[in-house]
Amino acid sequence: MVVWTLAGWLLWSVVVLVLRNRIHLRSTGRSAIFVRETSRMGARVRFAGLLLVLGKALVPGTMLAVGCGWPLWWDSSAPVARAAAFAVFAVGLAGTFGCQLAMRASWRIGIDHASRTELVTDGPFRYSRNPIYAFVILSATALFLALPCVWSLAAVVLVGIGFALHVRWAEEPFLRERYGEQYTRWAAQVGRFLPWFGRQRE
């Protein structure tokens, strides 16, 4: 399963990061990655970013550990377990990329204070304010199903906590300031990651 997991991780990285940014670059003339600018928003935002970096680093770290003999909690090479891991990965990848495309020119990684793009509230954003992050967490869960051990579980937990903190400390204050009442109404009607959960009072 290590080889298949590595192939899936590489595919996910190419589609979600490289391909999507290339599409954005072609349509807008500028990159959609603003990691450095986001890191200037304060210590709390940098801490959330650190958790995300650690969680993502544990993806290849888990493969290396298992490849070197780290024991798994169950036999993930069984047909049922393998099919479950593949199905979760496929849904996570397709959902992530689909929601990225649904953001059109408003999609970005990090905070771009110079942007004047629209607030996207249609499509999948009618049900979740952060569907991309929800599907990324689902993709990380596929790693745990494929290589079930403490390292893959830690990757899921760190990515989940990192996104939760990043949204609260970086994105929501920015969106509230940038879009005002439009964002406030949307946040009161739509959940943060899942429908009905994490809605904010107007």
General description of the model:
The protein has a two-stranded parallel sheet with strand order 1-2. It is globular and about 50 Å long. The protein has one domain. Helix 3 runs antiparallel to helix 6 and helix 6 crosses helix 7. It has 7 helices and 2 strands; from the N terminus they run αβαααβααα. It starts with a helix and ends in a 13-residue tail after the last helix.
Q: What is the topology?
A:
Elements: H1 2-28, E1 33-34, H2 35-39, H3 43-67, H4 79-102, E2 109-110, H5 131-146, H6 150-179, H7 181-189
Parallel strand pairs: 1-2
Helix pairs in contact: 1-3, 1-4, 3-6, 4-5, 5-6, 6-7
Please summarize what this structure is.
With 202 residues, the protein is an all-alpha fold. The chain has helices spanning 2-28, 35-39, 43-67, 79-102, 131-146, 150-179, 181-189, and strands at residues 33-34, 109-110. The model has no long low-confidence stretch (mean pLDDT 92).
Task: Supply database-style keywords.
globular, 202 residues, two-stranded parallel sheet, 2% strand, 2 strands
Which strands sit side by side, in order, in the main sheet? 1-2
Unreliable runs: none
Shape: globular
Tell me the number of strands. 2
Mean pLDDT: 92
Report Rg: 18 Å
The helix content is: 55-70%
